[in-house]
């Protein structure tokens, strides 16, 4: 599906056609599921439909998912020389790439219509930043899960947002896709993505084949017990492009299991990064996933139906690094760092020298064989300073309550000042001025980004 905030081009197709294609050619279904998003029957154009959805009940989820993608890109791709985006759709992440300072980007998608729209949107974006040297190219190709697709030059970062689950139609389709990821990714580069977790999908329908709520509907379409590959289900999130319209039921998707994703990725030299090394980014995910390959979303939509949060919690982020050894930050020798840290720990009598493991956030996690899953995982590069114009950092969980209280006090002060005709407190006025300046700087960019939901 193109999940709200997804920006990818793997859109829902007619279920009856999908079932027929699944029988005829599962691999072909992977690619044909990428059909272009058509305008809703309720609206004259796609733009009208997207603008209406941007104000609808699903808007909090869409914004949160866009925020996660933006912070992932800022964390692992900021300042990178090049980026390759699989299933780029209409280019919903163009402004994220521009704000991250990435000069060269190639987006690839099955749909020629989506690609044409992405090209148009890039031209509009470049007109707003004429001083920046941007080499962005968008092409259509049906090869991603069917045959090898190779560029002459490799990329620093590869992304696939809300789309990799379509390649779980067969094990061969996933292997072909991850092969294409690996051969186009530089050694030490990062593969970033977001995906619905099959385990959480199963939890929703463990007592029945169908789960229905105001904002989320899931229906199992597999026979017998679900398998690691080729287990289809229907997903519809209300007020989004996955929501069923007349003649459709939602998006046909495939279950994704962590062990299958990590196991197949390892065959192509892609190892999971467990520690993202950024508290702001970590606060957007379930704390229980701190040492796991998939980081489940941690939404908070207090003014929305609870099922909107349920829908968001189905999704998780992943980051892999291409390496033949232990993943580590660029320019860091993981073996040397591990030895230094082990020696320091031994001197402090914290643990025996032969079993010491690195503990620093920027270290090479899991050098010791006893680290289990961490043996195939690494740490992220050190956090970079956020440039003006990007989204404000998300508060860590321990700070949320304090910030909410401060915000309530400021709102009360402002209301009191408005009623009495008095001047606003300086702190409130200053905050409004900063927000206005930020809004003016981001208005066009953010609108372009959020329209692709």
TrEMBL record:
Recorded superkingdom: Eukaryota
Any Gene Ontology CC annotation: nucleus
Enzyme class: transferase
Keyword Nucleotide-binding: no
Alphabetized InterPro entries for the sequence: mRNA_G-N7_MeTrfase_dom, RG7MT1, SAM-dependent_MTases_sf
Annotated catalysed reactions: a 5'-end (5'-triphosphoguanosine)-ribonucleoside in mRNA + S-adenosyl-L-methionine = a 5'-end (N(7)-methyl 5'-triphosphoguanosine)-ribonucleoside in mRNA + S-adenosyl-L-homocysteine
Entry's EC annotation: 2.1.1.56
Entry keyword set: Methyltransferase, mRNA capping, mRNA processing, RNA-binding, S-adenosyl-L-methionine, Transferase
Keyword RNA-binding in annotation: yes
MF terms in GO: mRNA 5'-cap (guanine-N7-)-methyltransferase activity; RNA binding
Domain MRNA cap 0 methyltransferase per the UniProt entry, residue ranges: 56-323
Protein name: mRNA (guanine-N(7))-methyltransferase
Renumbered residue ranges of the record's region Disordered: 377-453
Biased composition (Low complexity): 399-415, 426-445
Organism whose genome encodes this protein: Chlorella ohadii
């Amino acid at each position: 599906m193109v999940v709200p905030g997804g920006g990818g081009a793997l859109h829902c197709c007619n279920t009856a056609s999908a079932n027929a294609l699944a029988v005829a050619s599962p691999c072909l279904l992977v690619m044909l599921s990428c059909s272009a998003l058509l305008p809703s029957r309720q609206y004259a154009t796609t733009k009208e439909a997207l603008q209406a959805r941007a104000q609808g009940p699903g808007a909090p989820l869409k914004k949160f998912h866009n925020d996660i993608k933006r912070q992932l890109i800022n964390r692992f791709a900021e300042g990178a020389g090049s980026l390759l985006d699989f299933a780029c759709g209409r280019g919903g992440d163009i402004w994220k790439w521009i704000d991250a300072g990435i000069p060269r980007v190639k987006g690839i998608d099955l749909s020629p219509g989506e690609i044409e729209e992405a090209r148009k949107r890039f031209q509009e974006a470049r007109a707003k930043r004429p001083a920046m040297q941007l080499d962005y190219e968008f092409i259509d190709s049906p090869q991603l899960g069917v045959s090898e697709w190779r560029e002459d030059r490799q990329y620093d970062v590869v992304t696939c947002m809300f789309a990799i689950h379509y390649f779980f139609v067969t094990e061969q389709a996933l292997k072909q896709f991850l092969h294409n990821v690996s051969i186009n990714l530089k050694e030490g580069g990062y593969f970033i993505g977001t995906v619905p977790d099959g385990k959480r999908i199963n939890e929703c329908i463990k007592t029945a084949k169908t789960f229905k709520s105001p904002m989320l509907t899931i229906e199992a379409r597999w026979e017998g017990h679900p398998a690691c590959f080729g287990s289809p289900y229907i997903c519809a999130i209300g007020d989004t492009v996955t929501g069923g319209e007349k003649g459709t039921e939602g998006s046909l998707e495939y279950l994704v299991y962590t062990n299958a994703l990590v196991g197949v990725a390892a065959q192509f030299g892609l190892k999971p990064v467990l520690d993202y090394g950024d508290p702001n980014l970590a606060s957007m995910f379930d704390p229980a996933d701190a040492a796991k390959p998939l980081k489940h979303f941690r939404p908070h939509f207090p003014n929305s139906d609870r099922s909107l949060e349920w829908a968001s919690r189905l999704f998780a982020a992943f980051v892999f690094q291409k390496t033949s050894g232990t993943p580590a930050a660029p320019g860091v020798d993981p073996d040397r760092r591990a030895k230094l840290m082990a020696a320091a720990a031994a001197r402090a009598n914290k643990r025996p020298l032969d079993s010491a493991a690195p503990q620093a956030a920027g270290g090479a996690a899991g050098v010791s064989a006893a680290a289990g899953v961490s043996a195939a995982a690494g740490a992220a590069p050190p956090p970079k300073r956020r440039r003006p114009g990007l989204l404000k950092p998300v508060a860590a969980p321990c700070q949320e309550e304090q910030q909410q209280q401060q915000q309530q006090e400021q709102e009360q002060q402002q209301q009191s000042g408005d009623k009495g005709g008095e001047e606003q407190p300086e702190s409130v006025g200053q905050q409004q001025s900063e927000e206005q300046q930020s809004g003016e700087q981001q208005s066009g960019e953010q609108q372009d980004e959020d329209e692709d939901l």
